[in-house]
Amino acid sequence: MNTRFAILIDLAIFQSAWFACVLATLSPFPRVLPLAGLALVLTRVSLTKRLKHALPFLFACTILGVLGDALLVNLGFLGFPPYPNLWGAPLWMIALWLNLGLMLHPLFSWFIDNCLRATIGFSLGGLVAYYSGDKLSVLALEKDWQSALAIAVEWAVAGIVLHLVHIRFPRKKTHS
Fold first, then answer.
1. What span, in angstroms and rounded, lies between the C-alpha atoms of 39 and 16?
2. How far apart are CA 159 and CA 137, in angstroms?
3. pLDDT of residue 171
């Protein structure tokens, strides 16, 4: 398959899964949508035979997401409407982190190839994503600019860790 077309498919699937997770709490299917989004991403990664390579990133993103978001919630920087959670991190948000881990290489490899790009890119990208969640009323930035700074730091750390995982588990060239 044409690499550009494959990237467009990956991006469309990732964005669909993002909306499924983020809008889950506003829908009549709050527990089904995150699972459907994750299933969509998992199917794409499996069909393109990228699952084995994605596993270290999947585990890293899961740990980063649960610990980072739970810490921000427990420190009062983030708030979420009632939803099943793990130490304060809602399960739909954890599903987002799982999706990121699964789709990291096809969509964000340019960032994780370089530590500075990973730090800045993830910091800004995470901030935009959480700001969007705030505007969609699925989360609350409880302390305005302090929350924004805390989120930027969380995602900067995530970028650095994912860069280090990328170095430890280099990608083998495959065609998708």
1. 11
2. 26
3. 72
